Amino acid sequence: MEEVRSSSAWVATHSSHVVVDSTGIEKVVENIKDSIPKVEWDYEGIHYFDNGPLTVQYLFVLDALNFCFWPGKTLYEDLNYDHLASGLKAALQNDKSAFDADRLQKYTGSQLRELLKWPRPLPLEDERVRLLHEVGLELERNFGGKASDLVELSGKSAVKLVSLVTRHFPGFRDHSVYKGHQVFLYKRAQIFAADIWGAFKGQGYGEFNDIGAITMFADYVVPAVLQQLGVLKYSSSLASTIETNGEIGSGTEEEVELRACSVYAVEKMRELIGIKSGKQVLSVELDLWLWSVGVQSALQHHRTLSIYY
Fold first, then answer.
1. Which of 15, 64, 136, 219 is deepest in the core (most CB within 10 A)?
2. DSSP per residue over 40-61, as a string?
3. What is the DSSP string of 248-303?
4. Cα separation of 249 and 253, whole Å?
5. pLDDT in tens, 5-46
6. Which residues pair with residue 233 across a beta bridge?
């Protein structure tokens, strides 16, 4: 994932709206270096797991749909990640063939809503349906209909798995052009590898010899946590837009900076923890901790309509 790290670092050093504060990083690291927070992958108990290929299929479908949890009528009526993960889990428990590749290609918006037991149109519903169809078609065409075959083809390399996913599934190609430079973030492709690793606890399908190469997952929640911790600082105009729930366009300088600076900041946190404590911590582990803090705090986040996160 060197292209994610290097392109995010380029953004951070040329940023106009978001600053990565080294003093803020030092303060956070000083507080956690002796007791690095560990968060279990399925600490909420919302994911399907049977220790087999059906779990891999479930996680791939989940991560294909893992984006855009707004807008909604009110904060309490928004679709959120828990709804998605637990809804898909219940659907699979009810019908083990629900995520077969041929069926994924045929779902309609109303059928997806029924699958999730969701009473209203989903945010970006047409795109969610399109991506389900894409996943079903490509799995059937290249991987025998099974996401587990895709994982096995990676040869225990998380980096190769991300490469395979982004090569075969266009909906996972999460990149932008920022000030003339291409920036790679690959949030959902990376989180698929991390979900497999976390679900299987680094064994079986989840055994990757390079899980340390995966970066944090640039989304809505983690930038808000980093800003609260003093790691990220926003320009007054960006801060005002977020505070007033203004929409930030996909691919704009502000949006790319929020995401790329978060990647860069977490990498710097990880490096500093290693220097100060002598302990190696994964970006994946830091991301899960930061994300869990964010969802429990219900912090105000930036709003961008995107299929990538």
1. 219
2. -TTTT--S---SSHHHHHHHHH
3. --TTSHHHHHHHHHHHHHHHHHHHHHHHHH-----HHHHHHHHHHHHHHHT----B
4. 9
5. 999 999 999 999 999 999 999 999 999 988 877 888 888 899
6. 19
Answer yes or no: is pLDDT of 76 > 50: no
**What span, in angstroms and rounded, lies between the C-alpha atoms of 125 and 179?**
31
**Structure pTM?**
0.95
Nearest to 91 by CA among 64, 57, 67, 125: 57
The pLDDT tens digits for 90-125 are 999 999 999 999 999 999 999 999 999 999 999 999
What are the angstrom distances between the C-alpha of 105 and each of 48, 102, 156?
21, 5, 28
Name the H helices within the chain: 2-13, 22-32, 53-64, 81-94, 101-104, 109-116, 125-142, 147-153, 158-168, 187-199, 221-228, 236-243, 253-277, 283-297
**Annotated catalytic residue within 63, 174, 195, 219:** 219
What pLDDT shows up at residue 71? 65
Residue with token string 């929020």: 258
Q: Which two tokens stand for residue 157?
A: 């390399």
User: Maximum Cα–Cα distance for the chain, whole Å?
Assistant: 53
219 is catalytic: yes
Please answer whether residues 7 and 261 qualify as being in contact, where contact means their C-beta atoms are separated by less than 8 angstroms.
Answer: no
